[in-house]
Amino acid sequence: MKRILFPTDFSQAAKAAFVYALRFADSFDAELILLHVYDLPIVDTPPMPEMTKEIFDIVEMNQFESFREELPELHKIAEKKGLGHVRIKNMLLYGDLVYNINKVTKDEDVDFIVMGTKGASGLRETFIGSTTASVISNSDVPVLAIPEEAEFHHRIKNIAFTTQYREKDNDALKSALDIADKFKATIQCLYIKNPDDPTDIDERIAEWRMYYREKNIDFFNIAGDHIEQTILDFIESQHVDMLVMRKHKRGFFEGLFHRSLTKKMAYHTKVPLLVFHEN
Q1: Is the alpha carbon torsion for 129, 130, 135, 136 positive or negative?
Q2: Does domain 3-146 have CATH number 3.40.50.620?
Q3: Closest-CA residue to 102 (of 60, 138, 76)
Q4: Does an H or E element contain 42, and which?
Q5: pTM summary value
Q6: How many CA atoms lie within 13 A of 213 on its CB side?
Q7: Residue 72 pLDDT level (bands cut at 50, 70, 90)
Q8: pLDDT > 70? residue 250
Q9: Is the predicted pLDDT of residue 144 greater than 60, yes or no?
Q10: Of 190, 143, 141, nearest in space to 169 by CA
């Protein structure tokens, strides 16, 4: 991991995520790219084109000044956390946020994205904001979404990894293990049993246990009719600090994060979500 992208709107949610971005950059000796994206206002075309240009120039200048004024506070946060040595590259762009995130990811050869998001505050609200969901859905690199209420404690201790013990889940698990090694954390593989389990699932589980026997991994196989609720209960009972998933089935992903859940969603708002994509 050489470059980490941190898109920010300088909100409280983004500032909470900034600490995670700093910690990851420090642990992997990576450069942190701080990106702020703004959009130009939609205005009725005035009689003289020069006036339109003047308006846009003023907006750009104000955005630049605002960007410059926000940076010292972030540097203070870094210094306070003992992370002032982390290399940070600042970028200010205008246009669509998701487009610019993808462009910077490609142009700067970014390996990882960390961004803040507002968690659910009511039954009709989603777990992650639509922007973060769009980034997760459209990005080619892993995305770590940090809820506003999340706090980076002394270290990440427990990382839950949801799996169906499929061969292609191994790549994501190995990447999660790299993170766990950096933070001296335990991986908790979570499999939710259901009546439609493949006939060879017990054999696959045994193979994983043997293959990863020297790694710091615990295996949990839990029966549950409601996948979302089972995950939330597991997060609470096992004191999970981070949830890791592979985005391999669109229906499940959207079901977990884009429809009304029970009040226990509140537990989830404090837990960062790391999503890996299919290669």
Answers
A1: positive
A2: yes
A3: 138
A4: none
A5: 0.82
A6: 5
A7: confident
A8: no
A9: yes
A10: 190
State whether residue 133 is helix, strand or coil: helix
How much is the average pLDDT of 148-166?
83
- One-letter amino acid for residue 224 of the chain: G
The C-alpha atoms of residue 261 and residue 127 are separated, in whole angstroms, by: 9
Instruction: Provide the residue ranges of all domains of the chain, joining segments of one domain with +.
Output: 3-146, 158-276
Looking at residue 182, its pLDDT comes to 93
Give the amino acid at 197: D
Amino acid at site 165: Y
Structure tokens at 71: 């940076």
Among the listed residues 150, 159, 142, 146, the one whose alpha carbon sits nearest the alpha carbon of residue 243:
159
Secondary structure tally for the chain: helices H, strands E: 9, 10
Matching CATH topology for 3-146 and 158-276? Answer: yes
CATH 1.10.275.10 fits 158-276, yes or no: no
Q: Cα–Cα distance between 189 and 185 in angstroms, integer?
A: 13
How much is the pLDDT for 55? 52
Asked if residue 179 has pLDDT above 60, the reply is yes
SS3 content of the chain, % helix, strand, coil (to 5): 40, 20, 35
Pairing mode, if any, of strands 273-277 and 143-147? antiparallel
Question: Treating both helix axes as pointing N-terminal to C-terminal, what angle do 12-27 and 49-80 enclose, rounded to 10 degrees?
Answer: 60
**CA 20 – CA 116 distance, rounded (Å):** 9
**Which residue's structure tokens are 């590259």?**
89
